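Notes continue from the previous slide.

Worked example: a multi-chain complex. Inputs as given:
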Amino acid sequence: MLNGLWDIIYPRVCLACKKSLKDTPAIDNLVCGECWGKIKRNLPPFCYCCGRHLEKSNFNKHLCPKCIKTRLHFDRAFSPCSYEGVIKELIHEFKYKGKDHLGRALSRPMIEFIKEYNLPIDYVDFIIPLPLHKTRLREREFNQAEVLSRHLAGEFNKDVLNSALLRHRFTRTQTELEEKERLANVQGSFSVKEARFIKGKNILLVDDVMTTAATSSEAAGALKNAGANIVFVLTLAN
Ligand SMILES: [Zn+2]
Ligand SMILES: [Zn+2]
């Protein structure tokens, strides 16, 4: 009875299409099966650096045109989804509307991707969520990257190292900036607090979206400066 009452007060709707979930199978009671099926997957071949799908003309170089031009600090990045449509909508709900319970569903494509492509998760010593600046964290109340990291860590029996990497400059939202401004915008915005935890380690850096790779590259650079061995980046979408 309580459940029925709850449904009247808070009718469950799909977070993407807003249709009622009353009579439809749904993922974690949050997203309808139809929307879930429409999530656009990032398909191989992948750029050996940023992990985006490579267009035919770049097959033989193994790198996308952007990665040929810019040197990024991480060893390789991976993303299971393309940042558009349903996933864009869900990430927005997740991040800006405080729906941290969406984290379980959203970590699923990442977990499946690791398994499907046999990513070397066994060699990863720590998962590090891309930190938010404390002002941003106060606004949002949770770090979406940390929520995803916890689900990944649970699945693969890894530790999340949350305090070693710091974000100490409050940068403007990357989406407000022109592409060329983005690299400059994040320069020097990360530092490592305790290098002894990082030295010689293989690290999986996790975030929700990689737009230009500037932010994750800068964070990876700070980890490498502190002696990290390998830094992989995994984002839900790119
Ligand atoms: Zn839907
Ligand atoms: Zn690339």
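Summary box: The pocket of zinc ion (ligand 1) is lined by residues 14, 16-17, 19, 32, 34-35 (CB under 6 Å). The chain has a mean pLDDT of 89.
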